[in-house]
Amino acid sequence: MMEQTFVTAKIISNRLIGDAVRHLTVQPERQLDYEAGQFFLMRLRDDKGDYVERSYSASNFSNRESGIEFVIRIDPSGHLSPLVGRLAVGDTVDLKGPFGRFGLAMAKDLKKLVLIAGGVGISPIRSIIQKSFSLNEAYPIQLFYGFRNDNDFLFREELQKYASSGRLELVTTVSTNNGTRAEHGKGYIHLFLENRIFKPEAGVDCFICGPPAMVKETREKLLTLGFERGQIHLEAW
Ligand SMILES: Cc1cc2nc3c(=O)[nH]c(=O)nc-3n(C[C@H](O)[C@H](O)[C@H](O)COP(=O)(O)OP(=O)(O)OC[C@H]3O[C@@H](n4cnc5c(N)ncnc54)[C@H](O)[C@@H]3O)c2cc1C
Asked: For ligand 1, what atom is nearest to the CA of residue 77?
């Protein structure tokens, strides 16, 4: 296989969309095709001029015209993510990839799709939703999406629009008391699966993305609800 090299990508937009979350859109100078759910290695120079590299999932489904989108939580004590906040339109980052197998290809004979996202874990999940809606298939989708508070309900309008189509059922929960709205359940997302999630029959595949503790607990919950290991696909950061 040909070794991948970094490709320069220009910043098209860089917006704050949550309490400390950036929605970054970039246009690579050469086409980078990827599958929904995959990630790229992003490289930037820090203040000392040294390179720093981190992985970020694409949050949109491959789109040649509008570029690649990323959703990046800024960790003030981190190395790369605070640099993202300073990127202006026209600046560049380097991208290598795509990498990873997380995505619809992991599901065989898919009949029903369960997506479970924690925080910025919505990023590859959104890409998978966009791809699902672009296909000529009508498998029903459940999206269980947990976030800290209402400000971190990323892509609210887009997700509510998918839900209003009737094909996607949206369940949201908040894990803190700040800004709680009645529309969200209260507590961690894995506590809201029981009695709501599709029955664990053949053809039901579950994709989980979020922080390691959330992914671990959610996986354990799915196993106790009767899902087989092969029906559960994980991406933990
Ligand atoms: C496949 C994959 C996909 C990902 N996709 C996304 C995505 O879409 N969006 C997203 O926001 N993130 C994503 N991540 C996470 C991302 O790659 C980075 O880990 C994240 O942005 C933090 O990077 P950073 O350089 O800002 O922080 P880092 O410098 O990596 O630091 C992270 C934290 O560790 C602490 N730390 C660092 N060094 C030490 C040390 N020696 N001792 C103790 N603590 C330390 C820092 O203070 C900081 O709080 C993904 C990760 C993977 C593996």
From this structure: 47
Tokens of 15: 């917006």
Residue 201, domain CATH: 3.40.50.80
Confidence (pTM): 0.95
Phi/psi of residue 159, nearest 5 degrees: -70, -35
> How many angstroms is it from 77 CA to the middle of ligand 1?
10
Ligand 1 contact via 75 beta carbon (within 6 Å): yes
Q: Is the CB of 80 under 6 A from ligand 1?
A: yes
- 218 and 118 co-located in one domain: yes
Low pLDDT (below 70) residues in the chain: 1-2, 63-64, 178-180
CA distance 85 to 30: 24
In tens, the pLDDT along 42-60 reads: 999 999 999 999 999 999 9
Instruction: Tell me the residue range of the domain where 158 lies.
Output: 104-236
**Nearest partner of 217 among 193, 190, 187, judged by Cα:** 190
